[in-house]
Amino acid sequence: MDQITNVHQKALSINMDKGQYGTIAEIGAGQETARWFFRVGGAAGTIAKAISAYDMQFSDSIYGKSSRYVSRDRLNAMLDLEYKLIIERIGEKRCHESTFFSFANTVASRSFTRDVDGQGWIGIKFQSSPCSEPSQIDIHVHLQAKDVSEDQENIGTLGVNLIYAALNYHEEPEKLLKSLMDELSYEEIEIDMVDFSGPAFAQIDNRLMALRLVEYGMTAGAMFNAKGEIVHPADVLYKKAVLIERSRFNPPTLFNLNMLDCAQEAFLDDHDLPENELIVISEMTLHNLKAGEDICAIDFLQRADILCALGKNVLISNMGEYYKLADYLFRCTQRPMAIALGIPTLNDIFDEKYYENLPGGILEAFGRLFKYDLRLYVSPCIEGECDEFTTTDNYLPKEHLIHLYKYLLENKFISPLNNINKSYLTIQSHEVLQEIKCGDSSWEDKVPEIVKDVIKKRNLFR
């Protein structure tokens, strides 16, 4: 089949295919998907019912009460009920000639009273073959157009793209993923979560799909939890303080975990926070994951397996600069934030070449980084042939940045991690990886016991 990228052609081709039949239910700003199918003609061949449950009381009476109307719970209630109804009412009559689907969205866009970016949940529950058990795709979108009508058009286009992709590309998940952005602008709509489930996607690892979202430029960041489940960052971070450690985790070492534990202890103490109000995240950027120009899926999943075994929430991002990470996190929470890092990373943060694209250079970058309640917790390091011990107290950036550094240090935007186990400072992740590959058992004393067990049991990094 030739790939169709035009949304008009997609809607028309679905309408002309008598083997596909379903319902469309939309709440809030997402009223545009059904309109596409009626606009192109022949909708009777595809749509059994189109419903707009706009009023909250009407919506509750149909789908049950919900604490939030724009939520994944509401999306799933819509998909489940509409799919159940179409199977009950016409399933027996058409089951051998049609595959059935229910499509739903619940969206809040920018409005006169709500001058913030819109967001919403979009999904489809569908049969991949007649009489088969249903599969499902859930998507979360962040709407970034400055005009409400543009948001609405974009939601309609994405809805058609999703229905077409689910029905035609479910055997090619990466093709499916890319096609969702046909005729859409990355600057106006961001897909920051996608979750595949059901028999059509039995072979899909959703963590890999989260990586692809970031790799394809569809979002700046995607998350999964310690169970390997795809989660929406705003749901996880809502009203939570956040501590992040960025690393390759290839593999995670005793130093990685010790630095994070020390940073967590300092962070909770400095802000007088209970532990249950803090979310700890292990972050890997695309740069961390690349070997040359490419990202190896197997290598990524090996690292993901280990981090999940350690009970970590994982963020995959393309935010190389830390001020971009701070902007991203602030979309999800306004509580205190912290980043655990070492002296080599602090060197990078004070390297002005990374801020040449900003009119205000390093000052603008630091202004954007520290305008939030954010702190850098910095581990000492041992470097050089003389094993020089460098801490936040004796660290020196370039001469013209010394006063800027001292200002940040004195005002506790930068804080030392003096309780690090100094015996771990000589552990280098790339050396541990090489020892694993060479069969040198020395690596076993440089990683946590859980990491050692997972690597040996699954024969990773060979």
Q: Based on the structure given, which CATH architecture of the largest domain is correct?
A: 3-Layer(aba) Sandwich
- Structural category is alpha/beta
Mean pLDDT across all amino acids: 93
CATH class annotation of the largest domain? Alpha Beta
Radius of gyration over all CA atoms, rounded:
25 Å
Look at the structure and name the CATH superfamily of the largest domain.
Answer: HUPs
What does this structure look like?
The chain has helices at 7-16, 33-40, 56-63, 72-94, 148-169, 173-179, 206-215, 233-237, 254-271, 286-289, 297-309, 322-330, 343-349, 361-370, 402-410, 429-438, 449-458, and strands at 20-28, 47-52, 99-108, 118-126, 135-143, 189-197, 221-224, 230-231, 241-246, 278-285, 290-291, 294-295, 313-317, 337-342, 374-379, 381-383, 388-390, 414-416. Helices cover 40% and strands 22% of the residues. The chain has two domains: 7-204, Alpha-Beta Complex (Maf protein); 235-458, HUPs (Rossmann fold, 3-Layer(aba) Sandwich), CATH 3.40.50.620. The mean pLDDT is 93. The strands form four sheets. The protein has an eight-stranded mixed sheet, sandwiched between helices. Helix 2 crosses helix 5 (148-169) and helix 5 runs antiparallel to helix 6. The radius of gyration is 25 Å and the shape is elongated. Helix 2 links the parallel strand 1 (20-28) and strand 2. With 462 residues, it is α/β, with parallel strands linked by helices. The longest helix is centred in the first third of the chain and has 23 residues, at 72-94. The chain contains 17 helices and 18 strands.
